[in-house]
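Name: Alkaline shock protein 23
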Amino acid sequence: MEEMINSGANELGVIKISEEVVSIIASLAATEIKGVAAMSGGLVGGFAEKLGIKNMSKGVKVAVGEKEAAVDLFIIVDYGVKIPDVAWQIQENVKKAIETMTGLGVVEVNIHVQAVDMGRDIKEEEAPRVK
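Structure predicted for Alkaline shock protein 23:
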């Protein structure tokens, strides 16, 4: 069963936001930053992609309390970028997006750089044939 975040009540009822929604917001905010090649989904995400299932929250782990959230992002960066600069921009953008859209306070956004995208196709990486 998916975890639901109780983000408040008003005279009309209770508003609940799923952790999946917070993950998707974080993922989209992270991939808006120049230098982020992709989110790193790991083994499970890789299988899902091969099956044609697009998981918008891959590479994101969230822990949500009553009023606060902590986010871990697992990313792949483009070769040649300044990783600390890209990471800081991701942190700022993710924090702003989650706080604006959900009203939750973001206490931390941890960036885990999993790989560097060299920007090459598999064909380019193959060794040239010797005649």
